[in-house]
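Course assignment 3, question 2. Fill in each field.
Student: A.L.
Task: Predict the tertiary structure for the chain below.
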Amino acid sequence: MTDASSVVTDASSVMTDATSVVTDATSVVTDATSVVTDDSSVMTDASSDVTDHATRVTDEPSVVTDEATRARLQPDYHLDMRPGTALGQYLRARRGLVRPEEVGLMNARRRRVPGLRREELATLAGISSDYYLRLEQGRDHHPSAQVIEALARALRLDEHATTYLHSLSQPTAVRRHLGEGERAPASIERLIASWTTTPAWVHGRHMDTLAANALASALSPIFTTGVNLVRAIFLDPGVRTLWRDWASLAEAVVARLRVLVGGDLDDPRLGELVAELSVRSDEFRRLWERQDIQVPTARPTIFDHPLVGTLELQPERLAILGTEGQLLIVCHAEPGSPSEQRLVQLARIAAGNL
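Answer field:
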């Protein structure tokens, strides 16, 4: 009896394990149809060849274009798009990051999963285990502010994460999902184009670059209209050499994306972006599943530019009124510093004067 399911046929080689074949003297059953070759499960993406950093980084279409493939991928990467699950997903992810000893619990029994058990978090928050289970499963959508505060304390959330948790627990109006036609206001485009010595660009809700001036693109090709910052950071190896602290940048960008989209998990653009990057980048998938959130801070960014050397620039992020979460990002150097001199030199290069 030959178990055809244990036989994998490859176009170039056939592996036969003699010990796995049990021969019955009276019958040999060979079912050739049990070997299934699903050509549609092989994902070949020509755009996975990452463009060299010295050339413009283009925003390639999503690698996950087949609807059936996307449907299979999304549950594997926690892209549950049912209404009411954002709060539950956040609670589940954050309790998995809290070590029992951090909250005074003995870790005597061997645990199959890291972090707190549901009943432990419920006890710490002063609510019943059944009620907490309903919250995490999305069967209760309207917890009180007191319950949210108790859960935030039990999960050891900071001020920004607590505010985010409150936002997930409150019903919101249906957001108008933006398609490929999202654009920066024309007045903003004209404004930043007039800044020849200050890098400036506009990011949309999913961190697509909607507009950028010449100096921004000279600073890095990822600051070019049409490029998605999140995709570029994880798929373009040149970004790792440009940013001095790439690991912190990657964590911050994923956490900011969480803040920008909030609890709107039925956003199809978000689903496509997260599904693609979860397949193509293990680092992105790990960070996304942590459900960290981060409000941008006023910390300088250090660029190791290939043409002018080290640039220490201060980014400023300004909300653009009348838009769906668009931000104007402006970078400047400390007056009289070597970075300012190098930025001026880069501006001359961008203007074609060098």
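Instructor remarks: The chain has a mean pLDDT of 75. The beta strands are 200-203, 209-212, 301-305, 309-319, 327-332.
Grade: pending
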